[in-house]
Amino acid sequence: MKNILIATDFSNNAYNALFYATQLFKNYNCSFHILNAYTEQTPLKSNCQAAGRNLSLLQQLGEESMEGLYSFLHRINLDTGNSNHHFGIHSKNENLIDALQQAIKETNADLIVMGNKGKTGAKSIFLASNVIKSINAIKDCPILTIPGEKEFVLPKEIAFATDYKKNYNAKLLQPLLTFASTCDSSVCIVHINEEERLSPVQKSNLYILREYLGDIRHSIHWMPDFANKTRAITDFIDELGIDMLTMIHYQHGFLEKLTREPVLEKVSFNINIPFLILPYTD
Predict the structure, then answer these.
(1) 40-49 pLDDT, tens per residue?
(2) At the top level of CATH, which class does the domain 157-279 belong to?
(3) How far is residue 281's CA from residue 275's CA, in Å, rounded to a whole number?
(4) Common-topology check for domains 3-147 and 157-279
(5) What pLDDT is attached to residue 124?
(6) Region 3-147: CATH code
(7) DSSP state of 90
(8) What is the CA angle 99-102-107, rounded to 5?
(9) Packing angle of the helix pair 170-182, 200-213 (nearest 10 deg)
(10) Is the pLDDT at 112 greater than 50, yes or no?
(11) Alpha-carbon torsion 163, 129, 75, 64, what sign?
């Protein structure tokens, strides 16, 4: 992964996500693109006119956005000082989703990283609503959410929750394979039993998945079809000491079913490990 897009609202939680990403790719040449989006509904940090210059609301918001970005840039350079890493800043007068979609194209982003409150934190409006909106709207770039105040831990055990009902391909799985290879991780394939046995299609897809994993250490785990799928996932994470959860987001798929529980919100906010969402396109 060469281009990593970091969405920020200048909170400690957002900075933690940026710092986590730099540590995850510490030994690799990467460009980190720090993005702040603002609209007329974004609250000003100060209600006074900037230095008496009688600026419009959007001009003030734009200046505050750039000040915040430069502050983040200065802080991350002091905290990391990694010659492998390059940083760029992007301020956009757009809603977050439109800004992300524009920045993905402009930066050729391989990954979006966003802060997300863990189970010990209160739900921020920015994070609670926009993480979910981003997951549902972004179809061409994987998203990695990082819990608030999460200390960096190299993910040695990555859980991949899947139902085997859709085919896998190299592009879809590349982020998972990259993380597993970069971190020398084991992949725990988690299937919640919604049927007595796998169909021929599911068996074929499982075989293909294992072929893609190749020499990466991996194991297969079967879980009962609990009524509360959130509990099934979180119990599995706790029992096996999982460091990162991965799911594919496709129409009528496993992750979409979880959103109806509604579980995506619960999974996103009630686990204290990074959550990698892989977008699926036919």
Answers:
(1) 877 677 655 5
(2) alpha beta
(3) 20
(4) yes
(5) 38
(6) 3.40.50.620
(7) E
(8) 115
(9) 40
(10) yes
(11) positive
